[in-house]
Specification:
The structure is a single chain. This protein folds into 2 domains: about 60 residues, no CATH class; about 80 residues, no CATH class. Helices cover about 65% and strands about 0% of the residues. Helix 2 crosses helix 3, helix 5 crosses helix 8 and helix 7 runs antiparallel to helix 8. The mean pLDDT is about 95.
Length: about 160
Amino acid sequence: MPLENPSPLEIALTLWNIGIVSEQNLIAWADAQILAIEKPADDLLEIATKGAKVCIKQGLIETLPIALGYSEEFFIRAYLLDIECDSATKSFIAWVAHNCCGSTETPEAVLGYHLEHLYCDCEDVDAAIAMLRVELPKIMPRCESFATMFLEQVSGLELCI
């Protein structure tokens, strides 16, 4: 997983790939980048003219989304989550319940396994929401550390959260 020095385009494509950026917003961001750079990369031009879906499907670009692990995607989604919004919180819990994996030595995985149990096994969404609202703030510095490093490289990219 190439998380050391990812390019802004790799990050933008990754956020699009995981559903946090729309195709339209990605194209608008690519357009803005092209105008700001003296000699934009070919991949940026392709994204701006054809969109990410077509470019990736047809193999028109070399730059691809980063394959994030559960923890990295959790950090980004948690950082962007409005924990007071019930519908956003339910969506986050559903994502966690269906994607949780990893060592029980990491707090995000432990929380994920507990949420998955409450959400899937017990079908107790309210208990899952209550648990998330208590436990997530405890690991938010970990989430914020990764997410801000990742997101600050694509300033101006409008997110769908």
